[in-house]
Amino acid sequence: MNLQDFTEQIRRRIGTDSGFDATVKLATDQGSIYIDGRQTPAVVSNEDAEADCTIKVSLSDLQKLGTGELNPMTAFMFGKLKVQGDMALAMKIGQKLS
């Protein structure tokens, strides 16, 4: 799956109400996925902008997180997933994506 396909998948999972009033950037090795939960409906794009929380992860590992093949805590502990900014927000977005 490429970045654009995964962006569409995240857009469907987030829906119209993200459940958080913040911005999140998923910074992958193939580009960024930016989620603006401050807007209604939530905006999901490939913009590379500053965010309240940035999650750095490879697109391959992000896909595994989405399917449940990779546990988020395991990914974090082994350095496959790095969080900059609001950790609580990272956990909230993790629930939306799995």
Shape: globular
Average pLDDT figure: 92
- CATH homologous superfamily identity: SCP2 sterol-binding domain
Arrangement of strands in the largest sheet? 3-2-1-4-5
Helix-residue proportion? 25-40%
CATH topology: Nonspecific Lipid-transfer Protein, Chain A
Q: Can you describe this structure?
A:
This protein is of the alpha+beta class. The chain has one domain: Nonspecific Lipid-transfer Protein, Chain A (2-Layer Sandwich). 39% of the residues lie in helices and 26% in strands. The chain is built from 4 helices and 5 strands, in the order H-E-E-E-E-H-H-E-H. It has helices at residues 3-14, 59-67, 72-77, 87-97, and strands at 23-28, 31-36, 43-45, 53-57, 81-85. Strands 3-2-1-4-5 form a 5-stranded mixed sheet. A hairpin with a 6-residue loop joins strand 2 and strand 3. The model has no long low-confidence stretch (mean pLDDT 92). InterPro entries: SCP2_sterol-bd_dom, SCP2_sterol-bd_dom_sf. Residues 24-95 form the SCP2 domain. It comes from Larkinella terrae. Pfam families: SCP2. This is Sterol-binding protein.
Summary tags:
98 residues, Nonspecific Lipid-transfer Protein, Chain A, five-stranded mixed β-sheet, 5 strands
Summarize the structure.
With 98 residues, the chain is an alpha+beta fold. Helix content is 39%, strand content 26%.
